[in-house]
Each structure stands twice: as structure tokens, then as C-alpha cells.
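Structure in, sequence out. Go:
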């Protein structure tokens, strides 16, 4: 990234256009003065990918090409501003599907160049956390963030804007990925998170005993592959014996096992940090069982839980615009050579 100051004097109102195309949502949003979301447009590809039981990368890329321009135009129309009024354009450049990312990055670069405004590259995972500042602009540092999405599970300690440390991460499957795979195995469909939650509402969470991998005693890392394998083995064993298993009970027991690990690791992290606030982020943050369990757990240790509204949990451009705003204030701009980075990591050490 290029650090510097904006040469021209800022307008009275500061608008950031955010663009998100990391997976199967084509999204654009306009943020005013870092706090007011004046427009947000999301074109979902879920109906397209449902027939395949998951996201098909090539199809996702083509859908982004088809819809990106119209989504951005609609976001700008709803915001009732011109491109000349933008202070910057922020875009997700990783992690994610490389083809999908390339569409967003190329589009954002062209728009920023034509509008003569700075380009800002945003880490998709960082954006998920920053979504919380939309409904809690008074959020104070330090805080611990539990980021749980389809491809990632992280525990992050935020010490200031754009200053954070990775305390724990998944060593294999992410929680959201495990939800998708088990949902497919149970025949519940895609996306897996909402499908598992809906089925679990009619099941008993103690019907099956699945492993809760905690790893080493002092580890804040996660592992969900063993839990996933246990569910699949249970299904395969029942199929060989000709036994019928209740899908709702399986969904509820699996969901509870995932929630138990996420909650226990979060409490462990809170006990080791100065944070008295836990921020939830990512697509799995919309899971009601997780929210309920975390609410109870943090209440017992006098910690505040901050959860974004469901629309800001799944992939969206508002979170990219918010993160972009703070990069703008830091003078952290991207070069025109910005490229997609499908495996883009989060920073390990806090930066001044």
C-alpha cells in the first residue's frame, strides 16, 4: 500500500464507495463521513449456485462481470451523488475466489482512475470486523473480535484502528465451511449455515455426542475437521446398518458442538487480554445459537458482546466502505498495480 495525504481539500461531506466481490455477492455501498450508510445494493448469486450445492468459482466470476456496473450505478443513484463527489473507492482485494476478486479490483481501479480519486484495497476479513462500527460507532479499543465466516475462523485483538493481532485461527476447516459440508451431507441444501440453523430448531442438541477439539491447553486455534468427520462417519455407519437418523437431531448436535468450541475459545482469549468487549463478525455471526451462547458466557465474566445486524454479517460492501474510511484517514492508498490476492493474510503484529 501507498501511504500519503490527499492532495485536494476534502469536501464538506466525505463519501466512500465500497465494492465487494470476494465470493458470490456483488455488492456496492456508499458511506458518508465514516458513519452514515446512504446506500447499499447487494446482488446475490445464491439461487444460481444452489443447484450445484455450493459456489462454482467460474460461474461466480461471470455473474460479477454481468452485475458489477449496474450494482454500482444503483448504489450511486440511491446515494444521489456523482463520482466526482467521492473521496475514494475502496475494494476487497482478498482473500476470496481469485476470479471474483479480479472483477471487483479491475472495476474499482477503472472507476477510481476515471473519477481521479484514491483507490483503497481492503482485506475482506478486516471488513467483516469493521461492519460493527456502522451500528456502534462508539466502539472502544481494545476489543476482541471473533471472526467466523465460510472460509475463516479467527480471534483478533484490536488495539486501535488498523492495529490488531491474530491470537488464534483455524488449522483446517473454518466453522462456516464445516456448516456447508454437513448441510450438504444431510441434504439440507446451500447455504449451509441458515439451513443447519433452521433444521436444528426442531432437533435435540444432546442427541449425538460429537468431539469438541480444543487442541493444546493454551492454544487459541480452532479445528473443525474432526467434528465434521465424526458427523460424516455417523451418517455412513447408519447407512451401512440401514438405520434412520433424525436430521434435525444431527443438525442441532453438530451446531451445538461448533458453538461450544467458539464460545470456550473466546472466553479463554478474553481472560488473557485487557479487552472487556467481544465483537462478533462474519457470516456465521448471524447464527442465533452462537449469539445466545456468547451472550450468556460474556455476561458471566462482565464483558460486553457487540453483534452486527444480520445484513452486515454476510458479505456486503458497507463493511468494505467503513474499513476503507479508516484506511483513508491513515493515508493508506493502493497503487494502480493493485492485484487480487486470494490467500491474503491478516497482519500478525499491530502496526503503529
Amino acid at each position: 500500500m501507498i501511504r500519503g495525504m490527499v492532495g485536494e481539500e476534502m469536501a464538506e461531506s466525505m463519501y466512500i464507495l465500497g465494492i465487494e466481490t470476494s465470493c458470490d455477492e456483488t455488492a456496492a455501498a456508499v458511506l458518508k463521513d465514516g458513519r452514515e450508510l446512504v446506500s447499499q445494493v447487494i446482488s446475490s448469486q445464491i439461487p444460481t449456485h444452489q443447484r450445484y450445492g455450493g459456489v462454482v468459482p467460474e460461474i461466480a466470476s461471470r455473474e460479477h462481470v454481468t452485475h458489477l456496473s449496474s450494482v454500482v450505478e444503483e448504489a450511486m443513484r440511491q446515494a444521489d451523488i456523482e463520482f466526482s463527489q467521492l473521496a475514494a473507492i475502496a475494494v476487497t482485494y482478498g482473500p476470496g475466489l481469485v476470479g471474483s476478486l479480479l472483477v471487483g479490483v479491475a472495476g474499482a481501479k477503472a472507476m477510481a482512475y476515471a473519477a481521479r480519486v484514491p483507490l483503497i484495497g481492503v482485506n475482506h476479513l478486516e471488513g467483516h470486523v469493521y461492519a460493527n462500527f456502522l451500528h456502534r460507532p462508539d466502539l472502544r479499543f481494545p476489543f476482541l473480535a471473533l471472526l467466523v465466516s465460510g472460509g475463516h475462523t479467527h480471534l483478533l485483538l484490536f488495539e486501535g484502528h488498523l492495529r490488531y493481532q491474530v491470537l488464534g485461527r483455524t488449522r483446517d476447516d473454518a466453522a462456516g465451511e464445516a456448516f456447508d459440508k454437513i448441510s450438504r451431507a444431510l441434504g439440507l441444501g446451500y447455504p449451509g449455515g441458515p439451513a443447519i440453523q433452521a433444521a436444528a430448531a426442531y432437533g435435540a442438541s444432546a442427541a449425538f455426542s460429537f468431539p469438541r477439539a480444543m487442541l493444546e491447553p493454551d492454544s487459541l486455534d480452532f479445528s473443525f475437521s474432526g467434528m465434521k468427520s465424526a458427523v460424516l462417519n455417523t451418517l455412513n455407519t447408519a447407512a451401512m446398518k440401514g438405520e434412520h437418523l433424525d436430521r434435525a437431531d444431527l443438525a442441532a448436535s453438530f451446531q451445538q458442538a461448533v458453538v461450544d468450541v467458539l464460545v470456550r475459545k473466546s472466553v479463554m482469549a478474553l481472560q488473557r487480554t485487557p479487552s472487556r468487549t467481544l465483537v462478533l463478525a462474519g457470516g456465521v455471526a448471524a447464527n442465533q445459537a452462537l449469539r445466545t451462547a456468547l451472550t450468556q458466557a460474556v455476561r458471566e465474566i462482565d464483558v460486553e458482546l457487540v453483534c452486527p445486524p444480520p445484513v452486515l454479517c454476510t458479505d456486503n460492501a458497507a463493511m468494505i466502505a467503513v474499513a476503507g474510511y479508516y484506511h483513508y484517514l491513515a493515508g493508506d492508498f493502493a497503487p494502480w498495480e493493485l492485484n487480487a490476492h486470494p490467500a491474503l493474510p491478516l497482519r500478525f503484529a499491530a502496526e503503529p
